[in-house]
């Protein structure tokens, strides 16, 4: 009977060791997946900042300077991008150029009156 019990205990130990190994592998896979997910989120964040956040922040700062009267109408926004942000830059540059022409016209009219 002792031999049967020893075999049963050995079989149980092997099954338990197999379960522990399986759970260890599962935990390792979850940890690897978590690290990969963090790297992916980091790359997405860097891409978002480079592609969307920084250009919109530059546009906001430029418009804020103009609104406060400190902006330079001779400076153009970056319109080299082929997306909506580049289109906003191009459209605003045209708007700014028309305002500059209007201001020059008003200044010329004032000097012609004097």
Give the tags.
114 residues, mainly alpha, 84% helix
Question: Can you characterise this structure?
Answer:
- The protein is mainly α and 114 residues long.
- The model has no long low-confidence stretch (mean pLDDT 87).
- It is rod-shaped and about 120 Å long.
- Helix content is 84%, strand content 0%.
- This is Methyl-accepting chemotaxis protein PctB.
- One of its GO terms (biological process) is signal transduction.
- Keywords: Membrane, Transmembrane, Transmembrane helix.
- The chain crosses the membrane at residues 27-48.
The number of helical segments is 2
Please give the alpha-carbon distance between the first and last residues: 123 Å
Strand content: under 5%
Query: SSE order in H/E notation?
Result: HH
The main β sheet shows up as: none
How many β-strand stretches? Answer: 0
Structural class: mainly alpha
Estimated helix fraction: over 70%
Mean pLDDT: 87
Low-pLDDT runs of 5+ residues are none
Overall, the morphology is rod-shaped
Radius of gyration: 34 Å
